[in-house]
User: Fold these one by one.
Assistant:
Number 1:
Amino acid sequence: MPEPDKTVIIVDDDHDFLEMNRRVLVQNGYRVLCCTNYEDALRCIKKHRPSLVVTDLMMDSMDSGFVLSRRIKQDPELQGIAVIIVTAASSRHGFDFKPQTPEELAGMNADAYFDKPLSCPVFLKKVSELTRGRKKG
Amino acid sequence: MINKDVRILVVDDDEGIREGCTRVLRKEGYEVLSAEDGREGLELLRLHKDFAAAVVDLQLPYLNGIELTGHIHEEDPDCVILIVTAFASIDTAVQAIKRGAYGYISKPFTPEELRIQVEKGLSKRELALEARLLRERGRKNLLEIAKERSQCSTIIKCMADGVLVINGEGRIVLRNAAAVRIFNGSGIPPLPCDIDTLHCPRLCDIIKSIFSEDASSFIISEEVSLGDSTYMANISRITGEGYGAVVVLRDVTARRRLEKAKSMFVSLVSHEVQSPLAVIEGYLGIARKKSLGDDPASYTGILERSLLRVQTLRTMVSELMNLTALDVGKFSLKRFTIDVLGVLKDVVESCRERARSRGIHIVLETDAAQEEFMAFADENAIGIVFRNIVENAVKYSLEDGRIEVGVDDNDSHVEIAVRDDGIGIKTGEMGKIFEEFYRAKNRQTSSIPGTGLGLCLVKRILELHHGTISVSSEYGKGSEFIISIPKFEEEEDTGCMP
């Protein structure tokens, strides 16, 4: 079990996606905060300094997730926070954002990238891996 | 061998010579007609007109040989005229030659001499005729070529595609009007000019590559961009007699734009479908693994949400089908004069139950004196419009809210107003709510199910009715949607449906 102060912020405009992952993460001992848009998320991140941010890609605009991840990684105070980008954008039709190499992933300012729906074991393993080495942001 | 299937005229007043010549020539296979004097000879000539040769005595009664030669020559410049003369009058024979005679033969002559002279004359005539035939054929060919060339140049000139012809040295030697238009931005130097003057490095590279020794293909097709436009460039190498290349440029900008829009739309649809599917799959996964413990009651919430998302998904598919049908013109409206108040009442009643469960009150206000509001509309389609607007009012109302639905009319339109005191719409989002898949997203709306297609469908249906929808709203205070539907069928010219 992770330490109880491992805080994860989930950002998604889909209420059910937030609720679902909130339950899964809480079940696994994380402290979870949910935000539905970029502005709320940034405010929440600055206030609570989570170990990890899990963000949807397409929210207010097509690339809200990228904007958020870049904002986090370029802020000296926030750059220790890990970022997972999650999307339901079909990779087969036009929006193929899926990174093919570690460099592309780094270019997205993300530590991991997942397609929706998330596979619980894979997702939890990644969350645990990304939060383990980090102190509270 | 000369052609002996020809007619020869013999004119001589000396019967012996006349008969002798006739006999000799007939024996050779010629058809021979004879005359005793110049006048008779002229008559025969005018009657038959097709003598290949004439043997004419210089001294003739009525019309002498020189005069007759002139007449024959006038009739047919190709007729071979052989003057028969006595040795003493050779000077006169020379005069006859000047008037167009072929040659002379002096008396006395042997049949052999006559035969040879006639043959020589006829073969010269044949050559002359052949030469003229060739000359005429040549002139005709030139005419045809000129005609073909002008057809070709008209076709090239009028082609909508840009055409450039490039010679082996990489210089442009021909271009049509469309090509001039395409490259207008980069200025148009006079022909022949270098391909670099096109200022399209990619196109120049392709042209150079087709000329290269190891070019694997004689035709290269590739898209090139020029300014804001996209062209499909087909470059063919000219082989055979000429050496060069033909470039045909077709404007595919509109097609590419459409394809891009289509692909964007498909991407959006797939995103909007995949998001709820991902949620449903996630919830079902939680239920199957019993992640929330053994109490079935713990799962009621997520199962309810799954059900709601499935229902929304189904609504979305049906709205998408309706929108597509509208776009391709397959959704034909059946418009009659109907009572829209009746349709509205049905919609309001069907929404009342769900509204009541959240403490929301719906009031339908109309002029009590007026029981019907007739409009020219498709009952089903207008039902979809009302349902979307009233359901939206319920969805975006706060608990214990109040929704007012009003109906009024003027000379030409029926107006339906749906007003709520709910969440409201931010000013910046007001223009976007009628767009496909646009949903106002904030903390308050994130759990409200919606397809993002409802208002888009409403707008399209009203457009087809020549009606309108407008919205006014204050964020946090509530919104008002006003629908306007024409009461009567439009005049012919405006009544067309897409």
Note: Chain A touches chain B through 29 residues (CB under 8 Å).
Number 2:
Amino acid sequence: MKKLLVTMLLVATTATGAHAGLKVIGKGDAMSLDPSALPPAMKANYQIVKAKCVKCHTLERTIVAIQTGVAPISGQPFDRSATKAYGVKMLRKPDSNMSKPEVKASVDLMNYLIAESER
Amino acid sequence: MLRTLHAILETIMFLKKHPVAVMFLLGFVLSPLLHPQSAEAIPAFSRQHKTECSTCHTIYPELNEFGDAFLKNSYVWPRKTPAAAGQAQEAGEKGSRNEWVKISGLPEQIPVSLTATADLAYDDEAYDGNKFDLSARSLRLHAGGAFREAAGFFATYNLYTQGQQRGAVASSPANSANTPPNNTPNLNELFLVWRHALDTPINLKVGRFEPKLSLWKKSNRVITVPSYASTTYLVGDSPFSIDAPEDGIELSALLGSRLLLAGGMVDRNGQNQKDGYGHLSFKIGGTDFKGEEPEVSLESDSVWDFLAITMGAFGYWGRNGQFDNFGIAQNLNDFRRAGAEMDILYKRLRLKGSGSFGRDSNPMFANTAVGFDSRAYAFEGEYYLGAPVNLIPLFRYEYQQGLGGGTRRYIPGVAYAPLQNTRLSLQYMHSDAPEGINRIAFASLAFSL
């Protein structure tokens, strides 16, 4: 019983306010997704997001947008049409260093995560 | 003790003899301190919207496409609808507004920031023998933001300036963007914009501001000293330049999302006649003036995926004169300016072109008027390096036809942002003017907080 209580306490202290369908590790700047919960195709996409997006901002920004359905800075709805627009924005940003296949992979991942978080 | 003193003196003598070595030595010594780290830009807009400088800037103060849309939207986040803002609050957005903020319309934080600059010039043929000059510095106060989404405001106040930047003296028609000629505390800009007045697309701006003529504000440059000859040139004794802040009223409106129209009236002291001006700009490709991204296919390629072309044209007509003892303008000068500009962005390459010409009926404010036709143009090529952009090599060519003849200026330069709120620039200015050739190496350090 004691062990169970300790385990529950540990889980409670490490848990974030993540949406039920989205498995998140860490908090704040260290927030990231749990790749073990992703299908193989999305795992590869996640590696791209992890490598490219964090050059300019934390993953927290993306995860919060998916969890809440609202982009944290602009206050705009963060839905499927928004993910495409953000993808285009990052593609065109001279400093993003992202190719079209990389942007497409990132948009596909965000759309998958939105669908998962809506479950 | 004496040995130490002797060594110090020897070092000073060496540095005095080799000023170029000093510049490189300083850069080398300081560079480890400025090693790139995670960006933490904190000026007013950044704090207000909790976003990094690179959202709106390439290397500050130059604006990127989104920054330009933010400016055109009078410092309100583009496309931020009240419904979306409410949804964000409901979703527990960080920094959501308190009720008192919402009711009063006040910004959540005091929207103030500071910019400090320190300049270093090397002129081998300095008229006063002071080849290596470290005397120019300035501290500027900025305030900007929005009262809810109803109005935007902006102010710039020169808290302190000292010294005159060498690039702006004699050989150059340009006045420094950072060091005003009067070197005294000075309100540079202070204006309020009533956004979408009476639910129309028209924005009404009142106060002291740079009239909307050029595509770029005077501060919207990678290298701010000198400013573009085409927008900053003076003729004779007339203090008018296209980019000088004026007291006035301006109306502007976006037609669709890619056509901007602006026009206004300027009040000049010592006379009853007002100046008038108009501006038109149009953008093809790229982020539109409302901050909306273009439709791009992720399956196929097109040149318009990355190409953005902005074109602008403007006209200004006014009158000024020399004040007599009662502050009444005498020996009046009627002047006109017209210009056209283009801004091309393709991936990391940005090209800017600006040309203007004018007519002054009496630019010397003389008893016997002698007219003068002026013209000037500037071309600049920039290449963005880094992710986010932190290094921009550039080259600028300028020409100005002044009263004494034509001046050509060649300016290769490089700007580096070790942090997004810190900028180091190094440039070489080769001026071929009627009075002779002038060569100046110029370094500048600026930071905002």
Note: Residues 19-42, 91-95, 166-182 of chain B have pLDDT under 50 and may be disordered.
Number 3:
Amino acid sequence: MVKLLIVDDSVFMRTVIRDMVTKDPSIEVVGTASNGVDALEKILSLEPDLVTLDIEMPKMTGIQLLEELQKQRPRHRPKILMLSSLTSKDAEMTAQAIHLGADDFMLKPKDIPHVREIGDELVSKIKHLVTLKSAPVTHTLSSKQGPAERVVLIGSSAGGPPMLDTLLAEIPADLPAGVIVTQHMPTGFTAALAERFNRIASMPVKETENGDTVETGKILLSKAGVHTIVSGDIGTNNTRIGRIIHSNTPPLHAVRPAVDKTFESAAHVYGKNIVSVILSGMGNDAGAGAHTIKEAGGTSLLCDEKDCLVYGMARSAIQKNAVDKVLPLNKLAREIERLIRQMEEDTHV
Amino acid sequence: MSEFEAYRGLFVAESRENHENMVNNLLSLEKGTDQNAIDEIFRSIHTLKGASASMGFADMERLCHAMEDIFQLIRSGSASMSQELGNLLLACSDLLEQMIDDVEGGGDTSSLNPDEQVSTLKQWFTDLGGGNTAQDQKSAAAHVPAAPAAETPAAPAAEESTDLPAYDIHITVASECLMKDVRAMIAIGNLEALGTIVSINPSKEAIDEGKFDGGLDLRIASEAGEEALKTAALGTEIAGVDIKPVVKQVKKAAPDGEKKPAGGAPAAADKNREIKNLRVDITQLDHIMNLVEDLVINRGRLKQIAEQHHIKEMDEAIAMVDRSVSDLQNLMMNIRMIPLNHIFNRLPRVVRDVAQYDSKEVEFIMEGGETELDRSVMDGLNDPLLHLIRNAVNHGIESPETRETAGKARKGLVRLNAHRDRDNVIIELIDDGAGINIEKVKRKGVEKGLVTQETADTMTTDQAVELLFQPGFSTADKITDISGRGVGLDVVRRSIEALKGTIRVETTPGKGSRFELLLPPTMAIVDVMIVRINGRRLAIPISSIVEVANFKRDATHQIGKGEAILLRDEVLQIFWLNDMIGVSKICDILIVVQYQKRKCCVPVDIVEGKQEVVVKPLSRFIGNTRGVSGVTILGDGDVVPVLDVNTMV
């Protein structure tokens, strides 16, 4: 049973959240609080397993509460799920919250009458979060540093982040490849997501910046609001260099970053030295990109439908006949490693 | 869907609260910067936006979002409020209110198009220097790809691919580079991936043939943005890239546009709008209230039966029931009590609008909004109060010029004050305007045929003021939008009296007027003293009784038409209730009653005792009888009138 504390200054929001989670019998709402002060008290007295936390609140904001928790270090520290709204301000605050130890974040429920999945997403996120270990991983830097000669490209959308938690934690730190993750997300929120993944993944994770080099042993998370384009260059010692370009071209499939943009541009640079993975997601982004990768000689993987909240993106790849293998989530990391090591051997032969 | 409907009420209730909070803080901002008010507004609009988004009211969300953007700027200190901006934001909040109304009525706000307001807000936002951050944000990748297409208006010239922004780029390959042509080709290739190369010098063919000396000029049409193009052109052994937009109006891409700092920790607000309440349908409360009233009546009957039959054993049981009923009754009273702020909160806005319409300058002060009144009283109070406030600004306060000529401050003062006086609630509305022009009132009275010229000439000020409350009287020279809508003070008085309250006016020419409303905190249950005159019973509210004294018939004095008595050096007017109850020979007890500072006395035969009773209003066909506030049914079934002291004194 997951003991949940709901913190939000809006009684409307508290009710909506409560109704969403109480549909699941394994979640019990042990209390609600309308400001940080109240929440702090209840965290100490009720010892919830997880807290959904609002940012803007009277008396004590969500951020101040997190600072207070860091200071007080309670014996039973609950997992904290930030519920943010879609503004640049909230995005910034969310990144700060993650930095202050919040475990994850999610957008506040939007358009309840039409989007059924939101409740499911919240519930699955809560259940997933409580299973995570609290201690952040320490990154062992890959022995093979420098510009990556091979890349793992991951495309993900709705329902993807929890899968990425698993996948990025399982990909070994010494994988001889760079990793680029393109996750559909509203502008501003990818900084927080990167910071969060950085605590979970075996490799260091950062949000892309215009001009970044794709490096072995490092994970880049596409910055939201721009497309991540991989552009090629050849170093002075004839090494291949992949460079990140942030492009402002209009959203593709109504999203920016679009997985297709990253997949296709990377295919031109890395050709057969690519393993692409499509995780859960709505819409039909990623299909065309996976097709280009396969054409260029790379390998395209899909996650099993049973592990995905939504299977739209994966299906778009299946329709284009751009799939090499479909694997359950917990087998993906091993297969990626196998394929990359194979590619490494092939280059050296 | 039904689950969604369940949220509607909650949404409306909370949104109204936030809307009100926002409007009031907007108004207080007009008086000067107030970080606390800004924080409050921000939080309110933020919550409004979140809730409307959750409910899927896209138009409302859009409006809130645009307003929030503006307030984000103000909150962070990079923009400040102005009268014009204030007006715009208030207009937007009016539309928000309409949207909330629409939702309450079962709509989804789609009938109210906020396009005009949103685009004005966006214009302001750009002018205030919000610039690109918002644009970026608006075109943000929608979280759910299936989101409405209207979400992405920002990408400049997205559809017209023929009219892409163009850039002139000059690339310099490092002089020490051994394969300059290869480097140039890589750069060209990377640029081609981002857009269409319009012209290039030297040409690719020329470069292929080795005709390249390290400098390359090209023009590219692309939406990728300057930064992206620059990065694509830059590479190993590229010494420099110069890039210039070609067309004048090319939007600069600034992905890392200025970000605003957090704006500090919000100051701890002293408000306690924390909602820990359960919202109950008011009709249910009314129903419970009726049951409690029945219980009170039946308790009285039980008591009487026990007394009549001298059943001692029942005393204890009745005492217990008595206590429970009293507690229950008090609790019910408290539940029904709501702070006056409920209706006060809207008034600053009214004052502001009327003042602006009339080009008057008015400072509005409200005090005592926390005073509580029964909900049923509150409901009836809203309209009369609104009318009085409009009157005060519209008729009371003079134009700034007139005021200056009269040696007053340009800004008129309207003060609304509520406080408890014993069991009653008193609401005062004071203005420092011109006061009521008595001569004008008399003239109007004669014109309208309300009084004859002779009566008018001999009228006292109070009597003349009384004319204001006559049906069909209006002193406004012209009928304005604001007041004078055909309802006069007579309607105000009638509404107040229907609430068992009274209205009183004092006015000093040149100095201003003071309207005083006296209201019972609750209409239903009162403590009364039961007295008998001429064998008939009468109930007098305990709250208005100051003394019960001995009365000697020969100690009275004749003053004019009335009779008075000297009691403890005070001259008190005697009210004989002969008309009402009939002449009594005994009458040796004097009940001194008081309304505010004024006292008078009523002679009675016997004082029976004190009792809590339910006051039932007189039925409609009897009408509003002055002097009697209602009737009550005692335990033995006797119907007893309750004296209305307020209208007597």
Note: Residues 217 and 280 of chain A are 24 Å apart (CA to CA).
Number 4:
Amino acid sequence: MINIPDIANATPIQILFCVLSVITLATAFLTIYSKNPIHSAIYLVISFFSIAGHYLLLNAQFLAIVHVIVYSGAIMILFLFTVMLMNLNKENEVHKPRVTRLGAIVMFCLMCLVLIAIFINSKPIVGDYTTTGEDYQSIKVLGKVLLNEYMVPFEFASVLLLVAMIGAVLLSKKEKLEK
Amino acid sequence: MNNILNQVGIENYIFLSVILFCIGVFGVLYRRNAIIVFMSIEIMLNAVNLLFVAFSTYHQDAQGQVFVFFSMAVAAAEVAVGLAILVSIFRNMGTIDVGNLKNLKG
């Protein structure tokens, strides 16, 4: 079940986790809630940075750096560029009908309830977390795993990125009129 | 730093990921702006990635992090192609309201 840690003698790591979680959830919600798409993009950047903080807290340095570079760097620049290209920073969006919005809220609550109930009831995670002191997530180990066992998927990922780049260029090219 | 899961607990990471994922689903259902819908999809992908990393730490296995690496590559490709599609939709129809894209409705 949910064990609420007592706030009085919480360790610094617990406090850090709580602060990061609140920032993540609040900015993710504000991304959806704010009317201006530029503000949404800014909130999404903050959310991505706090998720990178979670990765650092879990001692996954490589993923934290890659997350900051890929998400906060590349993807958010793409989003902002598209928003500004379409000149969408006006707050003139028509809302969905009231029934649909109510349905979305009910769906949100139900999905939270069902998923949390599944995770609580399916298999209670008991026991302490044991550390063997083995190095399993430094960049050295990750590189060895990535280039030994996952060599073929790694190469296919590069092919995927190449195909996506060509596809994006072709899609956004201006279509010539038929003569 | 080694025993963060002793101090925080894997359940709290599960709750965080579940709520983040549900916020993403809520965004897809709630908004009409296609760019915000894309951002919600990114939030959902990030929730799953966070759970992958937490369980990778829980099992002390590097393979979860490798999988997160691949899913980041797929997310980058998806965003590039999706935004290109959005730009061409905007060029053809003058709007990216998902309520207006119903030419295939039959």
Note: The mean pLDDT of chain A is 84.
